[in-house]
Write a structure and sequence with these properties.
This protein has helices at residues 120-123, 161-167, 169-190, 200-211, 222-240, 242-255; strands at residues 7-8, 13-14, 20-27, 30-38, 50-57, 60-68, 90-97, 103-112, 115-116, 128-132, 140-143, 151-155. By secondary structure, it is of the alpha/beta class. The radius of gyration is 22 Å and the shape is elongated. 21% of the residues are buried.
């Protein structure tokens, strides 16, 4: 449902990210849907104010009406079928007072990163793996946000893409070392200073430190950082024998 009247943004209240949880849910090969858990103190807001959730990426946006503050009511369909899914989708929550002639935005939470439904195995891993539609001829890519672990997106057009990543040496050897490198580069070139304790960034650096001959350098020199990343990726590849498994699979394929 669209808000048709002009909205006055004066004097709005900021809704903290901790007061809203958005969970993405996979829908087979189609676009994901989502659920919202509103945790803000609704006593501070008019009960009859309208509640909206907007999903957006780049220049695309999809808006959903969630009833009112006093009586939240999720829509029957929360499928993200009108948003560009080629990258990370963010959300915003709006509380709009429509009691006057001009609708007024009275509370807002923006740049909300969704959580992905995860199995127990996924929760203990460093990366989330998801099938992603609308990737064209791109086979895979990484999606980042500051709050949650990286998402390795596999083109949903690839038959059994996640299974291929888990069991096919061809796929593993061409994807995993490159993805590992990209995550480390993202952390070292996009994060300043020490990583927050318990953050996904700290977990990745700790994991890489166990593999590399030396720990992550504090020196900002790009050459030193690149060398450490090279050493980490090489050690990661050695640990999982990517090249050996790939050659063996190719030889078996040629013999067959």
């Amino acid at each position: 449902m669209q808000v048709s009247r002009r909205i006055n943004h004066t004097g709005r209240k900021k809704i903290r990210h901790s007061e809203v949880e958005i969970r993405l849910q996979e829908q087979g090969s189609g676009p994901p849907s989502f659920e919202v858990d509103f945790r803000m103190n609704r006593k501070e807001l008019p009960p009859d104010a309208d509640l909206y959730v907007e999903a957006y990426h780049r220049n695309t946006l999809q808006r959903f009406g969630f009833g009112t503050v006093g009586a939240p009511l999720p829509p029957l369909d929360t499928m993200l079928d009108q948003v560009d899914l080629s990258g990370p989708v963010l959300f915003r929550v709006k509380v709009v007072d429509s009691s006057q002639q001009i609708s007024r935005l009275i509370a807002l939470a923006d740049r909300l990163a969704p959580r992905y439904e995860e199995t127990e195995e996924q929760r203990s891993s460093l990366m989330i793996i998801r099938r992603m539609p609308e990737m064209g001829n791109l086979v895979w890519k990484l999606s980042f946000n500051e709050l949650h672990k990286p998402v390795l997106c596999i083109n949903s057009s690839v038959p059994d893409g996640i299974g291929q990543l888990q069991h096919n040496p061809f796929f593993q050897s061409l994807v995993l070392p490159s993805a590992f490198r990209e995550v480390l580069m993202y952390i070292l070139w996009n994060q300043e200073g020490e990583q927050d304790e318990g953050s996904w960034q700290e977990q990745w650096i700790t994991f890489a430190n166990r593999l590399a001959p030396e720990e992550c350098p504090a020196d900002p020199d790009p050459d030193i950082r690149h060398q450490w990343i090279d050493d980490s990726v090489r050690a990661f590849s050695e640990k999982h024998h990517f090249c050996e498994h790939l050659i063996r699979r190719m030889e078996d394929h040629n013999c067959g």
